[in-house]
Amino acid sequence: MLRKYKQFMIGFLIGALVFTFIPANAAVQEYILQKSLAKITVDGKEFANKDLPVLNYKGYNYIPAAVFRGICAKLGFSFDWVGETNEIQIQTKGEGDLSDTIGQALIEYKTVDGKEYVSIVDVKAYCKELYGGRFSVGYGRNDPTWASIHSVRGLHAARILKDENPNATNDEELIKSGVLIELPIENINGEIHITRETFENIVLPFIYKWEEKIKGGF
Length: 218
Fold this sequence. Notes:
This protein is of the alpha+beta class. It has two domains: 2-100, no CATH class; 110-215, no CATH class. Helices cover 33% and strands 27% of the residues. It contains six helices and 15 strands. The strands form five sheets. It has a four-stranded mixed β-sheet. It has a four-stranded antiparallel β-sheet with strand order 9-10-15-14. Strands 11-12-13 form a three-stranded antiparallel β-sheet. The longest helix is centred in the last third of the chain and has 20 residues, at 196-215.
């Protein structure tokens, strides 16, 4: 049961941040967010607060700290906001250390010359594990070496339009329409890698964007 809760927390924390209070004298940086189509379910039941909805910013889903507190309570975790240190403290009350697994269980980064990378093979496995067949990661080791990710649903829609536009499934057209992205890569010991920044700033926003499109009835 604890493992189940840990997996929930891992998947949740990878793509979401938690809002909390900002002191009045702190520097303020404004962000424009929209109401998200995402739903939070705990044990198959929706966990929602109409006054504190899930919000979306550049493909990332955010929830208020007050909502997250309620989720923690349902999972048997303790949640405390410590104003003196500006900390959100979560205690699992279980065996093992949750912090050891966050960000490591699904994606493992390697450091080369002070820079973090992830294997494209691991990115492909990540997409398959979390999203099934909704995203496809392609790559080739022969020159020119390349890597890309596309939305399977988006590609299918593009193929439907092919009769109207014969070029609809050309890579150039797919990139323009946002169905496909080519990834900047680096060859490390004969294996294709992307940087951590590419994974977090290009791959993840692409995935979240298409997940929102699908949830919206695309």
